């Protein structure tokens, strides 16, 4: 595991150990899960399926969006044609917050993935309580037993699971130990933070047909999408390049269609 990921997960374990004894926070009861994977599968049959990310900052880039407004960004992503949203809830490293997820989901009809570092199955109940429709499992961050436990907990909460891998070894572990048919290839190298779209191209060849593959990180133009389509991938997770645009709705349309 990269030093940074290890550090983030250690911080997260402390956070969870403080929250868990207090029980779930009393957020308003959320509506039933909206079907994250189903929305992606439906859109990907006829075109590009986009998970648009609400991301204020990151450890590698610092502040990405100064006038951060989760409700407005969620509505803009939906009008622009996104299939789903991703909302960062990790505070220490990404300046995220649970309230951003609640606000964003309330401002649109799209399914939302709670983007955080899952280290304990309990976080799945928490993700659902705040309205999440899916969670992320980062294979690099977990051992085989714990990741399967987190996946089971997610399924009990009726949450979909996006399984994130960076290389062949992680992909093999994911396919062997997890049931989810939604797998993301993160093009960002967690040790160097470099992004290389060739990572998706390489791993796409190894993924069975029943898996829906998501290309994550480093996508900024419609040509990037077309390049990935050559490798058979038409589902994307995009954050920074959209969050830096003044007009997020038009930028989303442009990313999806090449014009607008
Ligand atoms: O901002 P980008 O390069 O478009 O990347 C989005 C997304 O892939 C990235 O935010 C991400 C992928 N996996 C993660 C895990 C934790 C936090 C963030 C992420």
TrEMBL record:
GO terms for biological process: L-tryptophan biosynthetic process. InterPro entries: Aldolase_TIM, Indole-3-glycerol_P_synth, Indole-3-glycerol_P_synth_dom, Indole-3-GlycerolPSynthase_CS, RibuloseP-bd_barrel. It is an enzyme of class 4 (lyase). It catalyses: 1-(2-carboxyphenylamino)-1-deoxy-D-ribulose 5-phosphate + H(+) = (1S,2R)-1-C-(indol-3-yl)glycerol 3-phosphate + CO2 + H2O. Residues 6-255 form the Indole-3-glycerol phosphate synthase domain. Pathway: Amino-acid biosynthesis; L-tryptophan biosynthesis; L-tryptophan from chorismate: step 4/5. Its EC number is 4.1.1.48. GO terms for molecular function: indole-3-glycerol-phosphate synthase activity; phosphoribosylanthranilate isomerase activity. Pfam families: IGPS. PROSITE patterns: IGPS. Belongs to the TrpC family. HAMAP family: IGPS_B. This is Indole-3-glycerol phosphate synthase. It comes from Sphingorhabdus wooponensis.
């Amino acid at each position: 595991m990269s030093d940074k990921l290890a550090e983030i997960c250690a911080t997260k374990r402390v956070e969870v150990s403080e929250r868990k004894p207090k029980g779930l926070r009393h957020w308003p009861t959320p509506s039933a899960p909206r079907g994250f994977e189903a929305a992606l599968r439906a859109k990907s049959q006829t075109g590009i399926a986009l998970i648009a990310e609400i991301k204020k900052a990151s450890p590698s880039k610092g502040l990405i969006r100064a006038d951060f407004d989760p409700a407005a960004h969620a509505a803009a992503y939906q009008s622009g044609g996104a299939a789903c949203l991703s909302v960062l809830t990790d505070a220490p490293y990404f300046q995220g917050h649970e309230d951003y997820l609640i606000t964003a989901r309330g401002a649109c009809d799209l399914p939302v993935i709670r983007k955080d570092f899952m280290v304990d199955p309990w976080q799945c109940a928490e993700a659902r309580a705040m309205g999440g429709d899916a969670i992320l499992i980062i294979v690099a961050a977990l051992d085989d037993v714990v990741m399967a436990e987190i996946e089971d907990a997610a399924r009990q909460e009726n949450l979909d699971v996006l399984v994130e891998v960076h290389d062949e070894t992680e992909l093999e572990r994911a396919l062997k130990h997890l049931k989810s048919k939604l797998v993301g290839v993160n093009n960002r190298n967690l040790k160097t933070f470099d992004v290389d779209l060739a990572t998706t191209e390489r791993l796409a060849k190894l993924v069975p047909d029943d898996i829906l593959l998501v290309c994550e990180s480093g996508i900024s133009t419609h040509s990037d999408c077309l390049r990935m389509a050559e490798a058979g991938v038409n589902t994307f997770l995009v954050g920074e390049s959209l969050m830096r645009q003044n007009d997020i709705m038009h930028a989303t349309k442009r990313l999806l269609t090449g014009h607008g």
